[in-house]
Amino acid sequence: MDNRNERPAADPADDAFLRTCLFFNANRLSRAVTKIAEEQFAKTGLSPMYGYLVRIVNIMPGITQKLLAEKLYITPSTLTRFIDKLETKQLVERKVSGKTVLVYPTEKGLALEPEIRAASREFKAKYEEVLGSEMAALLSEEMEKTSGLLEK
Known about the structure:
Layout: H1 22-41, H2 48-59, E1 63-64, H3 65-72, H4 76-88, E2 92-97, E3 100-105, H5 107-111, H6 113-131, H7 133-150
Antiparallel strand pairs: 1-3, 2-3
Helix pairs in contact: 1-6, 2-6, 3-4, 6-7
């Protein structure tokens, strides 16, 4: 039998670095959290990011695109694509004031607010059920601090 194409058995220690790799663990956590969020937000017909964007616009009618992008930690070009999609769904609308673009909720967007808030509450309840409310709050706080440090 010709064994030239067989690979030697992998040593389990070879992938041990993954357990201490910030990149790997952050992405793993992101996928797990995204899955839970998407399940809860499915009821709204929006992805979690679109849901939170609509929620912010509903809370702050006339918010500038610049401030909205900053609040969501996304690039202006990504925000423009998101707003284009939400305008197509008639959930937000843009108005130009000089060189500034302002984003306003529509009646349809405002009417969706209770569903978005419910999805957000259910999302939080789901992850707190697994992590416990204390650990969930601590994790969010530490992630916010860490992100701030790494973004500098």
